[in-house]
Amino acid sequence: MSSSFHNADRRTHRKIMLVGLLCCAAFVAISFFAREQPANTYVLLKADKLVRTAGSLPIK
């Protein structure tokens, strides 16, 4: 019978799985932070409008 990865001892199996999981998590994190962020200025424009109109009477 040929040996396979699942026939290895449990500690080795867990270590390899943990290393693989950490590599995948690092790849996802680096990919997420390295991508170009969209230029969304809607929130900034809305906040600017609120600050400029703060304290003034509402127009009816």
Highlighted features:
60 residues; mainly alpha; 2 helices; rod-shaped; single chain; 60% helix; 0% strand
Written overview of the protein:
By secondary structure, the chain is mostly helical. The protein has one domain (5-52). It contains 2 helices and no strands. The longest helix is centred in the middle third of the chain and has 25 residues, at 10-34.
How many E-type strands?
0
Helix fraction? 55-70%
Residue-averaged pLDDT, rounded? 78
The SSE string, one letter per element, is HH
What is the distance, rounded to the nearest whole angstrom, between the alpha carbons of the first and last residues?
Answer: 86 Å
Alpha carbon gyration radius: 27 Å
Count of DSSP H/I helices:
2
Q: How many structural domains can be distinguished in the coordinates?
A: 1
Q: What portion of the residues fall into strands of 2 or more residues?
A: under 5%
Main sheet summary:
none
| Quaternary assembly | single chain
What does the secondary structure layout of this molecule look like, with pairings?
Blueprint: H1 10-34, H2 42-52
Question: Gist?
Answer:
The chain is mostly helical and 60 residues long.
